[in-house]
Amino acid sequence: MPYVVTENCIKCKYMDCVEVCPVDCFYEGANMLVIHPDECIDCGVCEPECPAEAIKPDTEPDLEKWMALNAEYAQLWPNVTVKRDPPADAKEWDGKPGKLEAHFSPEPGQGD
Ligand code: SF4
Ligand code: F3S
Fold first, then answer.
1. How many angstroms does the Cα of residue 7 sit away from the middle of ligand 2?
2. Whose CA is nearest to atom 1 of ligand 1?
3. Which atom of ligand 2 is the closest one to the Cα of 12?
4. CB neighbour list of residue 45: distance below 8 Å, 6 or more residues apart
5. What does the pLDDT look like over 87-108, one tens digit per residue?
6. What pLDDT, in 10s, does the model give residues 2-60?
7. Nearest C-alpha to atom 7 of ligand 2 is from which residue?
8. CA 57 to chain CA centroid, nearest Å
9. Hey, what domains does the chain have and what are their CATH numbers?
10. Residue 64: CB atoms within 10 Å
11. Ligand nearest to the CA of 6
């Protein structure tokens, strides 16, 4: 029952989450992060740390799409444990609808 990164992370990518995860299970794409579902120990510490409220427990409804995306890209993207500055326009993207369709990038981020 892992936690899952969802749509509002895209182009916000605040990265506060990576600093608190006790098992370092965040992986970095070009403009969002994902959680490795087999590594997450379901501690819940990251959820309140995300300014964009993008992290959800997978017990919430309608997260199937995000569970699949987190599982897929956690295998493709590099691990990240050190917070860097968010995008300069992160605030402008916070809460914007349709980010998955318009702005999701499969490209990997830089990682640690
Ligand atoms: Fe890491 Fe805990 Fe968040 Fe899972 S719930 S990603 S183990 S901080
Ligand atoms: Fe994304 Fe929130 Fe972490 S915006 S990078 S899940 S702090």
1. 10
2. 21
3. 4
4. 20, 21, 22
5. 999 999 999 999 999 999 999 9
6. 999 999 999 999 999 999 999 999 999 999 999 999 999 999 999 999 999 999 999 99
7. 50
8. 12
9. 3-82 (3.30.70.20)
10. 10
11. 2
